[in-house]
Design brief:
This protein has 141 residues and is of the alpha/beta class.
Amino acid sequence: MLKILLPVDGSDSSNKAVADFIQLLDCYKETPEIHLLNVQHPLDGNVSLFIDKENIRQYHQEEGMKKLQRARELLDLAGLGCPFHIVVGEPAEMIVNFAQEKSMDQIVIGPRGMGVVKSLLLGSVTNKVMQLSTLPVLLVK
C-alpha cells in the first residue's frame, strides 16, 4: 500500500490542498495510507530556562492539534481517518526527514502555507521540501 505524507500548517491554503487531494484519490489504484504531519517551530530564546520541558511539549501538542483540526475533519468526512503526527523543528527539514524515517512513498503538499512571503509562486517551505526530498512530491494547488 502506498504511504503518503500530508504536511499541514492549519492555513487556508493547506486545508484547501487537503480537500483537493481528497478529490484526487480516485487516481490511485487503491486508497493510500495517509499520514498528517504538523511541524511546530521551536520556541525562541531561553524559554526553556523559565518553562519546563513537559510544559513546552504540551504547548507544542496543543498548538499542533489546533493546526491539524480542519485537515482531520476533512479526512474524517471523506471516511479517511488517518494517523497524525506533531514534531518540532525547521518545517521543510522535518517534513523530509519524517517522510524518510517513516518510509513514505510520496509527500503531498500545498503551494503555500503560513509563510511570511505569500506573493511568491511557491511558499518557502514547499520550495525547500521539493529541493531536499528524494521522494516524489505532489504539489496540490
